[in-house]
Amino acid sequence: MLTRREALAGASALAAAAGLGGLPAFAQTVETLRIFVPAAPGGGWDQTARAMENALRATQLIKTAQITNVGGAGGAVGLPQFINQWKGQGNSLMVAGLVMVGSLIANKSQFSLSQVTPIARLTGEYQALVVPAGSRFKTAKEFVDALKADPSKVPVAGGSAGGTDHILIGMIAQAVGVPAAKISYVAFAGGGPATAAILGNQVAAGVSGYGEFAEQIKAGKMRLLAISAPTRQPGIDAPTLKEQGVDVELANWRGVFAPPGVSDADRKAMTDMVLKMAASKEWADICAKQDWTQITLAGDEFGKYIAGETERIRTILKELGLA
Asked: CATH: 3.30.70.1560, 3.30.450.30, 3.40.190.10, 3.40.50.2000. Which one for 125-244?
């Protein structure tokens, strides 16, 4: 049987080769790559930027990188700076993801990801729906039936209001005919407090990235009801929401964007460089170590994906009363 590392590496190669018209041409070595991270050091986007630097240097696609962090409001503070001050800089990339889409909408920002240049979606983490080990819910269907009966009696723990966790539970409600605004969602500032609330039976269920709960699931302290992936995932022993009659999938994806105003040649060079990195063993090893699922999508197709995600998230946030 394949190990999770082997499966992830294979998925990366197939995604790059089959989904993107073959492996990209070899890019020339970039002297200095500037990476803009619209978040504080230490978080997921920052980890992605530093992992990219390591992989790009190891594959000799760049000589060095300069990382700039500008945190605040899920990327809503940093994005205007990237748009206005980094315009036309062809040796630059910004790391961002699903959280920024929701944050820009919730903060009613005048800026959006349509104003930057999509290069590639790189990784995703699927969300996990969990309950305490002693819960009466054995399947996602049982959870959904209780939600439909009375959503006020099924409190769900997750991250900040309007974030990925909140969005997923809103999508689940929407899919099964429950008004999203009636969900009893308990927002926590971090994964630790949310986990404590679930383990302490203070809530009926919890939602977060699988990695946040993996240790508790493996220890038998939580029961994993479902993941929000399109298909079952290597190394995760749980059915998808779709398998259990809930037509929802959601990946907390991360990707990279060039500034607005870059030339076609610079855009192609950045895309080729990132795709070569994504197809490398060095990147596959990093993703396996971090438990990141590779969901590579590049160029115009990535741009279309962003547009669709923006409208989908806007609809859910409106139903949740957050947009």
From this structure: 3.40.190.10
